[in-house]
Every structure is written in C-alpha cells, then in structure tokens.
C-alpha cells in the first residue's frame, strides 16, 4: 500500500514527487510511455525561471527527476490501463501489475493534436514544426511563420507570434474562423497577419540541413497546389488529454480534461484524488504552471493523508 502514487513524469508529476518525497511520503511515480513528458521533445526552454541562458527540455525534466529521487521518490516504468477510485484505497492496474494507494495525483499531460502530414514528425521539436507559440515564438524573430487552425487557439498563437515574426500566415480549411468574434476581428485587423482561407497543408518541406523551409498547401475549392516559404510552422488544432485510461471513474469535460471545481485547481470530485498539469489545464499549458499545480497537488495530498489517516502526524 502506497501513501501517494503519481501518474506522469512531466513537470507536474515530478514537482509533485519532490514535495511528496520531502514530506517523507515516499511517493511512487509511474512513468508512462513518455518519461519526462512533452517537454523532452523541446530543444530549448527559455522561459522556465532560474535558467537565464535557457535549458533543453530533456535536461530540465531529468534534473527535476533526480531532485525527486534524492528525497526518496520511487519510480516504476509502467503504464496504467484502468483505475478504481471510489473507495479509500485507490486501485490502479497495468497489464501485469496492480497498485494500491491512499492518494493519487494524476499528471498524465496532454498531447498536441497533429496533422499527420509528411515532414511534420521529421521537423517537430527544434527544426521548425511546433505546437506552442509561447514556448518557441521568440526563436523566430524577423522570420516568416505559418499557423494552421481556425479557432481561438490559432488566433491567439498568430497574434502572439506577431511580436517576433515579420509575417504570420494562417491556414484555415474553411472560409471563416471558428474563433470568437473578438479574436477573429483582432486577428483579421492585424497588419502582420495574412489568412489563406479554404487552404490545407499537405507537406512540410525541408532544406538541405533538415530544417523547415516551406509548406506545400492545397486550395480545397480549386485544387491548386502551391508552396509558402516560412521558417516556422505552428500547429494550433487542439490537444488531446491523456485521460482515456480513467474511464468513467472521474469527471472530465467534453474534451476529456479532468475537472476541478475546487479553489485549489487540483482537487477532483473524488476524495484523495488530485490532478496537475495539462491533463486538466487547457488554458496555460506551460512547464511552470504545471510545476505549480504539482506542488499544490502534493501539499493537498499530504494534508489529506494527515487528516484522514494520521500519516505524518
């Protein structure tokens, strides 16, 4: 029987592990299919406090993992397939093992929804293709970039990128935005933004060094194919939270994000179950905000364990 199990090893899960371990709770961290989370695919992180020269994503998460292990966190290389959360003892099942815990912190993150076109994976993470303007926009100062999408997220990404890029081209498969009117109007009025309506990307094209040089696009009405030269390709068509394994055990919204109606932002409707990071947060989605949620989740779990079970009292 564990006091705390944390599912996920991104900034949220690993920060929760640090706080739980320092409270002598000996948390068990289940690493999942991508140890370190999405941040490990980022070549350079410039906006995490404490690293004035920046740090690559893998090194950052590896450092946090080592810090958690130093205080006594345990790690298991496993993938949880189903859970039973309603009782005082939470039961987690993988393909070959069953885990029991008094508290659970879910920090499984979310994965960006990708297009599935040629060149996308090859140039993803440091070579031109990205899913986060806030993370990577500053790398494209004075360059032309492309954003694909038509909702609020795409408009927000495009507007943010105008701070750095010389030009932002939005590709949208329809002839009007799905975004809110205020976001759409603001986007259309910006002199750095050009919108290509009824247009879909077909392939990301590389230069001799393997970095992006252009995107081949198709007009869905005329069928005409052309190339748009750009150094950055920002995909803003949504994210998929990694929550399917929870089944009906915990409330989620219509998109699968775990719901927290508590002021802390990390309590779920199930006593002893907490959430942190991008599997719940579909607004900020930053390493630092995920880390903050992990901290809150661990402290909440510690207090619950003391009040209900006398752990650490």
Can you summarize this structure?
The chain has helices at 11-22, 57-70, 133-136, 152-161, 181-189, 287-309; strands at 2-7, 28-30, 74-76, 82-84, 90-93, 98-106, 110-112, 129-130, 144-148, 167-171, 193-196, 199-206, 212-219, 225-229, 232-235, 239-241, 273-275. It has 313 residues and is of the alpha/beta class. Strand 10, helix 5 (181-189) and strand 11 (193-196) form a beta-alpha-beta unit.
Structure explained in plain terms:
- With 313 residues, this protein is an alpha/beta fold.
- It has two domains: 2-111 and 239-309, 3-Layer(bba) Sandwich (FAD/NAD(P)-binding domain), CATH 3.50.50; 114-235, FAD/NAD(P)-binding domain.
- Helices cover 23% and strands 25% of the residues.
- It has helices at residues 11-22, 57-70, 133-136, 152-161, 181-189, 287-309; strands at 2-7, 28-30, 74-76, 82-84, 90-93, 98-106, 110-112, 129-130, 144-148, 167-171, 193-196, 199-206, 212-219, 225-229, 232-235, 239-241, 273-275.
- Strands 1, 2, 3, 4, 5, 6 and 17 form a seven-stranded mixed sheet that branches. A five-stranded parallel sheet has the order 8-15-9-10-11.
- α1 (11-22) packs parallel to α2 and α4 (152-161) packs parallel to α5.
Secondary structure topology:
Layout: E1 2-7, H1 11-22, E2 28-30, H2 57-70, E3 74-76, E4 82-84, E5 90-93, E6 98-106, E7 110-112, E8 129-130, H3 133-136, E9 144-148, H4 152-161, E10 167-171, H5 181-189, E11 193-196, E12 199-206, E13 212-219, E14 225-229, E15 232-235, E16 239-241, E17 273-275, H6 287-309
Parallel strand pairs: 1-2, 1-6, 2-3, 6-17, 8-15, 9-10, 9-15, 10-11
Antiparallel strand pairs: 4-5, 5-6, 7-16, 12-13, 13-14
């Amino acid at each position: 029987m564990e006091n705390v199990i944390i599912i996920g090893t991104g900034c949220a899960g690993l920060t929760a592990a640090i706080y739980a371990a320092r409270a002598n709770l000996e948390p068990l961290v289940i690493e999942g299919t991508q140890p370190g989370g999405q941040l490990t695919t980022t070549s350079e992180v410039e906006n995490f406090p404490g690293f004035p020269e920046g740090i690559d994503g893998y090194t950052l998460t590896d450092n946090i993992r080592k810090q958690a292990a130093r205080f006594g966190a345990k790690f298991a290389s496993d993938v949880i397939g189903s859970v039973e959360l309603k009782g005082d003892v939470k039961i987690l099942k993988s393909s070959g093992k069953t885990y029991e815990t008094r508290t659970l912190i879910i920090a499984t993150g979310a994965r960006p929804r990708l297009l599935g076109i040629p060149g996308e994976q090859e140039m993803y993470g440091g070579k031109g293709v990205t899913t986060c303007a806030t993370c990577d926009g500053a790398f494209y100062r004075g360059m032309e970039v492309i954003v694909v999408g038509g909702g609020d997220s795409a408009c927000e990404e495009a507007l943010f990128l105008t701070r750095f890029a010389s030009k932002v081209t939005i590709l949208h498969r329809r002839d009007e935005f799905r975004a809110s009117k205020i976001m759409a109007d603001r986007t259309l009025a910006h002199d750095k933004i050009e919108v290509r309506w009824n247009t879909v990307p077909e392939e990301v094209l590389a230069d001799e060094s393997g970095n992006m040089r252009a995107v081949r696009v198709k007009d869905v009405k005329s069928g005409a194919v052309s190339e748009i030269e750009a150094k950055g390709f920002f995909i803003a068509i949504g994210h998929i939270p990694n929550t399917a394994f929870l089944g009906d055990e915990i409330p989620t919204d219509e998109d699968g994000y775990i719901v927290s109606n508590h002021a802390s932002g990390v309590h779920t409707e199930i006593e002893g179950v907490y959430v942190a990071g991008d599997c719940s947060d579909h607004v900020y989605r930053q390493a630092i905000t995920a880390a903050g949620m992990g901290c809150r989740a661990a402290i909440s779990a510690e207090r619950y364990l003391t009040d209900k079970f006398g752990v650490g009292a």
